[in-house]
Amino acid sequence: MPSTELTTANGSGEHVVEGSASTSAKPQTKITLAGKVIAITGANRGIGLGVASSCLDNGADRVYSIDIGEVGDDFAAVQKKYPGKLHAIKADVTNEESATKAVDQIIVDAGAFHGMVINAGRTKHKPALDFTTEEINQLWSINLFGSFYCARVAARTFIKLGVKGSIVFTASMASYRPNKRVPSAPYGASKAGVRNMTHTLAMEWAQYNIRVNSVSPGLVNTAMTYWVPQQPDWEQQLKYYGGMPRLAEIEELGGAYVYLLSDAASYTTSIDIPVNGVVGIC
Length: 282
What we know:
By secondary structure, this protein is an alpha/beta fold. It has helices at 46-57, 73-81, 96-110, 133-161, 185-205, 234-241, 254-261; strands spanning 7-9, 15-17, 37-41, 62-67, 86-90, 115-118, 166-170, 211-217, 272-275. The protein has one domain (28-275): NAD(P)-binding Rossmann-like Domain (Rossmann fold).
């Protein structure tokens, strides 16, 4: 049932709900990342790099990729397009201490920290009965445990800096329903866990003005999905999938992340945005 809210006048004469996180600042209506410092795990390539490019397209001051791998030509091309704005920090996101050191380095280098995209992950598709314990642990270590650790690192840093930070997880359409063509119970379970974390952490950290959301991509044209259009009956599959009959380009995901990272989303938390062209997974 609705509750009665007590209000009090603040110094400027405005009325503010007692106990709320309201401020007298005018809500931002323009979607922009101007002046913001963003960290993205697993952004040396693929979806993460596409999100990094989108952030820079929308005015981000600096973007840092936190990744255990090496950068390649694609990363260098984005660096060339945005001189001095895209940087790579080597770290193991499955190790909370390593992730903490990476974010600390960002603070030293940039003097600020406003948003974290928790994107690093891996996938493996095979029948549940064929998965080895090692393969399951590899998936959950980065997709689930690494995501949780990086979220805590970001939250602790936002609280320390007094920043109204934004955390955006990369979940997956596989967190909603299985892909019967290429099943992966451990992968789907890990991404479902990410979506649950989104809702739970959003609830816990709202008191610190930290927003937590996620994006669920469908089939995206990356190195991990090279096999999808190579299937002999791919064109036939698309007729039954419905929606947009193609894979998404990584740049088409960026808008969802940019919105959730921006101040235009200041009252948006605990949601997941599916970006799947209505193709979905079936």
